[in-house]
Backbone:
């Protein structure tokens, strides 16, 4: 089933027709005041964690726009599935089958990066600089402030790539072997499953989820092919959300974001979630 995001925090989300992700229960963003009706603390205009401090601007050799010739397949392995750590206690009486399952993403080796960008024919010093840059956590830019998150529809933002039903169908037609279109203009669960699983593979098994988000004027100004109007909802292929911003295993690397940008022909943005 596709990784369409569902929350464990409300009954309304559990009744969603979409498949439940295999991720553990989401950690909610904490605020300075315990009550929702109370006034939130002052907004933070910088990233919420030192893990996302701005990295030094890359040189021309390590540009995030470096051309990706094709998918990096040498490091691709099946996700390592493991039960919850032994020191994590479950208060419920559920069986072992109900225990949360965690994905363990793999990591790009220097050799993987060199193979992916070998066609650039960089000298050794420039290639080494590119390797270091591509393995770093991606700079997520202006992460929404606590105040913005507090006043958002679902108290959550996600960072990802705009997509539409037609984009999903076109992706499946191009990359899915033996794909047979249904004739419908709406993406089915089959197509949604394929694109999220395919992109998760490119992300070294980090979850890519299909989210519903709110379109703003900034999105309209920066995404020429977006068809939804300002204030309306749209689909986004999310690679991380503010619920997981401080968890290292959810942090995408520069290589992962560059490669997804290549496949989706889009740049990622922050979006207010509404699903």
Residues:
């Amino acid at each position: 089933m596709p990784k369409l995001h569902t929350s464990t925090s409300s009954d309304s989300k559990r009744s969603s027709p979409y498949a439940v992700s295999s991720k553990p229960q989401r950690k909610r963003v904490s605020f300075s005041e315990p009550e929702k009706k109370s006034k939130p603390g002052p907004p933070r205009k910088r990233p919420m964690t030192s893990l996302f401090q701005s990295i030094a601007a890359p040189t021309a050799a390590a540009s995030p726009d470096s051309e990706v010739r094709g998918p990096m397949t040498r490091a691709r392995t099946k996700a390592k599935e493991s039960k919850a750590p032994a020191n994590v206690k479950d208060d419920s009486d559920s069986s072992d089958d109900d225990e949360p399952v965690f994905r363990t993403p793999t990591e790009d080796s220097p050799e993987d990066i060199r193979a992916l960008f070998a066609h650039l024919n960089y000298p050794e010093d420039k290639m080494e600089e590119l390797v270091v840059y591509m393995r770093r956590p991606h700079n997520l830019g202006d992460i929404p402030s606590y105040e913005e998150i507090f006043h958002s529809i679902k108290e959550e933002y996600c960072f990802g790539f705009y997509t539409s039903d037609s984009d999903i169908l076109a992706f499946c037609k191009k990359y899915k072997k033996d794909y047979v279109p249904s004739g419908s203009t709406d993406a089915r669960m089959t197509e949604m499953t394929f694109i999220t699983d395919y992109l998760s593979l490119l992300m070294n098994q980090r979850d890519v989820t299909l989210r519903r988000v709110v379109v703003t004027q900034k999105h309209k100004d920066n995404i020429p092919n977006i068809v939804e109007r300002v204030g309306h909802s749209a689909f986004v292929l999310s690679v991380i959300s503010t619920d997981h911003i401080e968890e290292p295993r959810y942090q995408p690397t520069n290589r992962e974001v560059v490669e997804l940008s290549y496949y989706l022909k889009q740049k990622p943005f922050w979006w207010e979630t509404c699903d």
Summary: Residues 189-202 form the longest helix (14 residues).
